[in-house]
């Protein structure tokens, strides 16, 4: 079995896009996505949301999210991380949803350039 240092080094290399870690995961920093080879090549995307938005998503009131995050595609998993009012401090609450549809600013008139609507 690999030592703790080897595991940390392997994950660090995977996070830098150099190779997959021992579970077949590879991190892409430019889009903040994690490709999980063990799960059939699924991509996990993580975004930060306010407490209010997290509540709407968790309760099922909101079925979409507007983001400027690139690289999200249908079938990806999107993880919503709840943050405090400062916009940075994470509360530890997380919720993962499967992306059903993504529309870009090119497809929806009135949507700010560089933004996407992600339905789940």
Structure description:
- The protein is an alpha+beta fold and 120 residues long.
- The chain has a single domain (24-119), classed as Hypothetical protein (Archaeosine Trna-guanine Transglycosylase, Chain: A, domain 4, Roll), CATH 2.30.130.30.
- The protein has two helices and eight strands.
- The chain has helices at 4-15, 51-59, and strands at 25-28, 33-36, 42-50, 64-67, 77-83, 90-98, 101-104, 116-119.
- The strands form two sheets. Strands 1-2-3-5-6 form a five-stranded mixed β-sheet. It has a three-stranded antiparallel β-sheet with strand order 4-8-7, with no helix packed on it.
- Strand 2 and strand 3 form a beta hairpin.
- The longest helix is centred in the first third of the chain and has 12 residues, at 4-15.
Task: Name a few traits of the molecule.
120 residues, alpha+beta, Archaeosine Trna-guanine Transglycosylase, Chain: A, domain 4, five-stranded mixed beta sheet, three-stranded antiparallel beta sheet, 2 helices, 8 strands, 18% helix, globular
Question: Would you spell out the secondary-structure blueprint of this structure?
Answer:
Elements: H1 4-15, E1 25-28, E2 33-36, E3 42-50, H2 51-59, E4 64-67, E5 77-83, E6 90-98, E7 101-104, E8 116-119
Parallel strand pairs: 3-5
Antiparallel strand pairs: 1-2, 2-3, 4-8, 5-6, 7-8
User: Which ranges are low-confidence, i.e. pLDDT below 50, for 5 or more consecutive residues?
Assistant: none
Strand content: 35-45%
Any idea of the CATH class?
A: Mainly Beta
Total count of strands: 8
The residue fraction in helices comes out at 10-25%
Q: N- to C-terminal separation?
A: 39 Å
Structural shape: globular
So, CATH architecture? Roll
Largest sheet entry:
5 strands, mixed
Tell me, rounded to a whole number, the average pLDDT: 81
What is the CATH homology-level superfamily?
Hypothetical protein
Summed up, the helix count is 2
